Give the backbone structure.
Amino acid sequence: MRVLVIGAGGVGSAFISITARRDAFTHLVVADVDVERAQRAVDEAIDSGELDATQQTRLRAEQIDASNDTAVAALARKHDVDVVLNACDPRLNPPIFQGAFAAGAHYVDMAMHLSEPHPTKPYEKTGRRLGDAQFAQSPLWKNRGLMALVGMGVEPGFSDVAARYAADHLFSKIEEIGVRDGADLVVDGYDFAPTFSIWTTIEECLNPPVIYERERGWFTTRPFSEPEVFTFPEGIGAIECVNVEHEEVILIPRWIDVERVTFKYGLGREFIQVLKTLEKLELVSTEPVEVRGVKVSPRDVVAAALPDPAELGDHMRGRTCAGTWVRGLGLDGEPREVYVYHVVDNDWSMSEYRHQAVVWQTAVMPAVAIELMSSGTWFRAGVVGPEALPSEPFLDLLDSYGAEWEWLEYKDRAPLVTEN
């Protein structure tokens, strides 16, 4: 498979390190507006000592302006790629999405096109939902015989595959699906250091969260609503989780028969307070303001002032857990609750790949998906989510990448609602 990776940040670089070792990937190009950063991603993969001479020759670094769909298409054609992987933040989705289509390449992203709140009732009704603009173009992709696989990171991505697995193998009827994300990660030496893009974290946490219910359809609520304590497995323990906007709530009901879908994130009260303070100070805006003759968005300033999550690995310890809690009737017709999950230990990901746990876990999921695309095991023309495809081959292949998925009965560890 010939792949163009656009974005050489933490996730894009981790994707190169992971896939450079796999025979399914015959040509890997990583492109970034900063070509030196793209070259570092290539050098890191080579310097790992895990690649033979042939594998090293498969890697290329390029410069690109990802805001220009014509440039994206031109670079995809130059390298005759089969797939364009979007490893940028979702602001750049539209030109990368269109560039891949223009080049006749399949497309994979890890976060869908951004939403827009309802103009008058943002905490009651949805406006333009996550990915609406992409799904509107599904007939075009289908007619061209191309697949745009959207939301194929860890969350969304693995979490959607986990929902598909539960629906196909563990339940006869599903009442509720709740994606729950938590970690016991600690970053030594920093009072505040997010382990993932603060730009994206602000976007998904401060936008009105979306909830799905069969009788109401999609609707919104206030940020950080419906707090609950969820007990994560493998000793991570109980963490308070709250509603945030996320793609799974949009994707899962499209392909899985379910009464209710939510996404809740184990942010912790200190993290939530920081986000609320940034919002109060109007530092979350993406609209540029002029400072001493220079225009810059407040959110970009916040992101620049914080440490780069990709460079925190040596200061981190602990584990990150992504998973999907499902409640309904089991195959025997009896009430059942399970949690299908994936845990990555930072010590392991750093020792094996020199990438911290959160970015490695995010990057490995599109690697598995694109390997399945290379064999033809995963293919469905049009714009599709992960739950539109069979879960078994994905989960089987994921195990071979080094960090195995699991599922547990969770009836005695159901989420406990707390007070706001």
Summary: The domain at 2-109 is CATH 3.40.50.720 (Rossmann fold). The longest strand covers residues 171-183. The chain has 15 helices and 21 strands.
